[in-house]
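Incident log, entry 3
Record: Release factor glutamine methyltransferase (289 residues)
Problem: checksum mismatch between cached and fresh output.
Input:
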Amino acid sequence: MAACPDPDGTVGAFLCRAGQHLRAAAIPNSRLEARLLLGHALATDPGRLVGESRRPVPPAAAAHFADLLRRRLGHEPLAYLTGRTEFWSLSLAVSPATLIPRADSEALVEAALAAFPARGAVRRVLDLGTGTGCLLLAALGEFPWATGLGVDRVPEAAALARRNAVALGLGGRAAFLAGDWADAVAGRFDLILCNPPYIETGDIPGLMPEVAAHEPASALDGGTDGLDAYRAVLDALPRLLTEGGRAVLELGQGQRPAVSALAAARGLAVRGCHADLGGIERALVLGPG
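Fresh output:
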């Protein structure tokens, strides 16, 4: 391992050595991740560290950083280590009780906005499997006259989503509850969002270790064919959607035909499908048939 140019005990030396270890562990963006971890350990903006290579790192922060680095080298997700991530320009708290929001899921928000160009048309939003609350909170930010309900079967996730809503100033417009999909939900909604578990059970061990070993299996495992959660959600949609309402469901790669067929069997019509930035059909838009 090459020598680092800055003196031991300084920001530059810590970043250099951490970057080398992260690269050796085949972790992408090693320099950026090293800076994010050290910024978290120092409780400072990571961007400031670029010009502070000779800044001494206090012993307590050095010990914290060493622990964070050890865990990251074990492929624990960066977001779980820092406790935060971004989605739709929102800063959100995350925890191992929730799936880490992905940029791919922003396609659902884009699809919702395309479905309702008149923002005032959405007054009630439901988010099934809310996790961090990312989809619901992004929607409430875009539909200013709406209120929303987020449901998650994991009580810790529902509680975290509630904290995110309060932190973003949306606590008065969002409610959260722990429940099994829509079993405990009554009434009708203009917009229903859902990112269900859709990975086939047999495929989970082959996922990257950050996902397979650390993210909650309940948010990943869609059963033998990956469609179990869709069946449960689609069963509930006819009684939950308003006459002009739309449901937007996240899809796994190649799942559009199967999920569309399940929807049609329940009297629902496909109203559109939006791709993510990688060109994968990601957000299926459904309405009453």
